[in-house]
Amino acid sequence: MHDIQQLIENVRQNEQIALKFFEIERCILSIGRCDQFVSTLTREVQKHFNVPYVWVNLINEAPLSHLIENLEKTTDLRDRVLFTRRSAMIDMIKSSNKTVLVNENIQSCREIIPSSYRDIISSVAISPLTIDGALVGLFCQGDSNVDRYNPETKDTFLLDQLAIKISICLSNVTAREKLEYLATRDSLTGLLNRRQLELMLEREFTRSKQTGRDLTAIFIDCDAFKAINDTLGHNCGDEVLEYIARRLLKYVQKQGLAFRFAGDEFVFVLPGKSLEHSLQVAETLHNYLQSNPLRYKTNLVPITVSYGGASMNADTPGSYKQLLRLADERLYSYKNNKKRSVPTKVLKFLNKIR
């Protein structure tokens, strides 16, 4: 009789656990954005199972590379998402598609554990996440209790089932965000495209008119870009554009947005920043590129840029299109005034290797 009662109690407990897993699945199935997905998943697991530390590891390469920028700048996800080398994940789960429990030699897991948890966690459950059969991440739960995830006493069946559902949801979310990313980004540089520039400028122009806050737009143009393309080929030209875009993004990403306008032209927009400040950002970019040529095959390709800008407070334009037009006109005025000097360095180099 005692064995039957114990069996019935075990069934009831398993039903309760299964219901909790079902509730988590219900919460994540309809989510369309990856940041919301990670936040909801980790918080629901913490709430339903009283797990103190829950996070997701994602590979820092395709097919998830387009998610990195958005997830890394979402402060609410600090310690809830970690981008990790695929090889480090494989080292943890080997070739298994099952959840791995670790409560000994926890230091071997350091690379997949957020830094703020590393000296706290004594046991961890690591569930592989896959898309189209390929490992793309790990769903991890940790506890300071060494017995919480004891491989000798714990069963992983329900965790394995949850990992399958998480993988399906992750696949759907990343596919949806990939389409959005491709629709809003320049395919070569990864910067926002011209359509997004116009939408952002229109919105910020209206806000600036209402609040009196400054708004600045700066055009950037690569000097002698056609000559670089004609001499070294389009592959080199593409690398030049990518190089400029990476450095531009580094200088503006914490204070504004960067866009590829067309061809070798870029635009960055700084809401709340003066024209003087924004032109200094452009000058810093110019100085860096001039001092750090691009290494292309056996060549060090010199790169210089021209720039021009306009702002709400300095120019009082009547529309965002006029603001952009003023910035473009000043770019070409700048180029024409210095055509004899700075691009000469680039042209001399190209003439030398022809």
From TrEMBL:
It comes from the Bacteria. Transmembrane segments: none annotated. Residues 213-347 form the GGDEF domain. It is an enzyme of class 2 (transferase). Signal peptide: none annotated. Pfam families: GGDEF (PF00990). This is diguanylate cyclase. It comes from Marinomonas phaeophyticola. The lineage of its organism: Bacteria, Pseudomonadati, Pseudomonadota, Gammaproteobacteria, Oceanospirillales.
